[in-house]
Amino acid sequence: MKITFIGLGNMGAPMARCLIAAGHSVTGFDTMAAPDDITCAPTVAAAVDGAEVVITMLPNGDILRSVAEDIHPAMTKGALHLDCSTVDVQSARDVAASAEKTGLLSVDAPVSGGIGGATNGTLTFMAGGSAAAFAIADPLFDIMGQKAVHCGEAGAGQAAKICNNMILGATMIATCEAFALADKLGLDRQKMFDVVSTSSGYSWSMNAYCPAPGVGPETPADNSYIPGFAASLMLKDLRLAQQAAGAVNASTPMGERATEVYADFVELQGMGGMDFSAMLPFLAGD
Ligand code: NAD
Fold it and tell me: First vs last Cα of the chain: how many Å apart?
């Protein structure tokens, strides 16, 4: 397939490499990054010329909107715009509407799995768009990921992503504050893990991504909290969830509090570059 990949950052470059390794013809474009091993076009319009699929992996909704405005008129009619960035639901819907108006197919398919998942081709994709558009994207999801769920119409992928990450943010804080409380109660962290990971308090944050160093599986906690998943990205996703909740008048008190706690951690404590599980040493006062 003739594929264009726009946004060759931490996630986009390794995803593009997976497609190249699978034998697809990939042209890249990025305003800053220029990886040696990915052939890049000089302009975004030249990059999308003749492409059957254009994938975008960009920092936020405003940038996605502006790139979509540039590329949609330059894309071949009937081609697919597959956006894998994490953006607000409204931007995803507006970009899908622009694609439809221009005679293009579109899918919003944010990912879970981080840089490791992008490198190893083991991402999970949460997709929104028509069945016809999803069918074109699906074989590419198989190459870049281990699982793709077609969640519904345009915007449904972003909705699934921010709901998942709102649970993750709140659960990580709850896990970290429980460890911090256990410390103060004189409970050994390993014993705490042994009980909670097999009791009703278990979660992905505790069992698969334990924030306590030396306890449970190997995680960023065992590597000085180098991300992993940076706290700044968790804050971004929690704010997207709050923005969406506000737009539809949904009550999300835990999500709201988790946003405040991560905003403090990232913006007041300057910890945005640390893994989001570094909430534990922060709360425990380590
Ligand atoms: P990044 O900042 O490393 O990469 C973004 C790239 O987009 C950069 O190389 C930048 O130069 C490029 N870019 C910016 N504006 C552009 C434009 N107008 N035209 C072309 N290129 C442009 O970010 P990332 O970590 O790769 O994340 C990308 C997306 O994936 C984000 O939406 C993020 O929330 C999401 N995400 C990231 C992770 C992660 O662990 N890094 C995990 C899941 C989802």
Answer: 52
Helix or strand run (H / E) with residue 65: helix 61-71
Distance from the CA of 212 to the center of ligand 1, in angstroms? Answer: 29
- Ligand 1 atom index nearest CA of 114: 40
- CB-defined site of ligand 1, < 6 Å: 6-12, 29-33, 57-59, 63, 67, 85-86, 111, 114-115, 229, 233, 236
Index of the ligand 1 atom closest to the CA of residue 67: 18
C-alpha torsion angle, residues 133, 135, 137, 143 (rounded to 10): 180
Q: Which residues are catalytic?
A: 161
Over the stretch 159-210, which tens digit does the pLDDT of each residue have?
999 999 999 999 999 999 999 999 999 999 999 999 999 999 999 999 999 9
| CA 8 to centroid of ligand 1, rounded, Å | 7
User: Shortest CA distance to 81 belongs to which of 94, 90, 117?
Assistant: 94
Which positions ≥6 away from 177 have C-beta within 8 Å?
283
Ligand 1 centroid, distance to 122 Cα (angstroms): 18
Question: pLDDT digits over 99-108, tens only?
Answer: 999 999 999 9
Tell me which residue of 201, 141, 208 sits closest to 177, measured CA to CA.
Answer: 201
Asked if pLDDT for residue 286 goes beyond 90, the answer is no
